[in-house]
Structure formats: C-alpha cells, structure tokens
C-alpha cells in the first residue's frame, strides 16, 4: 500500500512519473465537463484523457452516459461523418444517363401497390 497516499484531503495513487487522484463521486461531473469540453470527442477518448489524472468507480459507464446526453458531442459526432462529394455527369443526349430507384413503402393502394418506381433522365436541354 506504499503507492497510496493522501494529498490535500484527496486519495492518490502514485505512478512512475505522476500520481492519479481518486475522486469522490460528487466531483466526477465537474471533471467530465472540463475534459469533455475540450473538443467534445468520443466517450472513449474522454475516458482516456481523464484516466491520465483521475479515477473513480464506474468512470467509463458514467462518461458514456454523460457524452450521450451532451448535445455538443452529438453534433460533433454527426458533423464528422464523411459525405459523398457531388460530381458532374457527362450526358450527351436524352436517355443517355438514367437513374432508377424504388421509394416506399407507402400506404397500400386498392390495387395492392405500396412502392413507387422513380426514373430520372439526367439530360436537360
């Protein structure tokens, strides 16, 4: 137990080059808010950063819950998604380039139809 000591009324664990503060549960939200606010990264990245200096029981689960309710984190997560790029189609004549897709299901008609076939000719005069 030589690696455990008290520092300013906080329980600490000594590591090779630093020490980890064992936080009381009541201070955990303040620390998560501070570390999450750096860049609203993923829960795993936030836990990794916190683990460099702090520890408490249930840290990973609590950070995951916190991040799932953080609107900035959710927005950052969605803005990092790769989107396809637009490109120009080289179309020479009518019916040279046609796209076809099926949309639905929609409410079923009296004839039993529930999908819509959409065809687009990319030629425009």
Index terms:
single chain, 125 residues, alpha+beta, Endonuclease III, domain 1, 2 domains, four-stranded mixed β-sheet, two-stranded antiparallel ribbon, 30% helix, 22% strand, elongated
In short:
The chain is of the alpha+beta class and 125 residues long. It has helices spanning 28-36, 43-51, 59-69, 71-79; strands spanning 4-7, 10-14, 19-22, 54-55, 98-103, 116-121. The mean pLDDT is 82.
Structural domain count: 2
Radius of gyration over alpha carbons? 27 Å
Percent of residues in beta strands: 15-25%
Q: What oligomeric state best describes the polypeptide chains here? A: single chain
Explain the overall architecture:
It is a single chain. The chain has 2 domains: 4-79, Endonuclease III, domain 1; 89-125, no CATH class. The termini are far apart. α1 (28-36) packs across α2, α1 (28-36) crosses α3 (59-69) and α2 packs across α3 (59-69). It is 30% helix and 22% strand. β1 and β2 form a beta hairpin. The radius of gyration is 27 Å and the shape is elongated. With 125 residues, it is an alpha+beta fold.
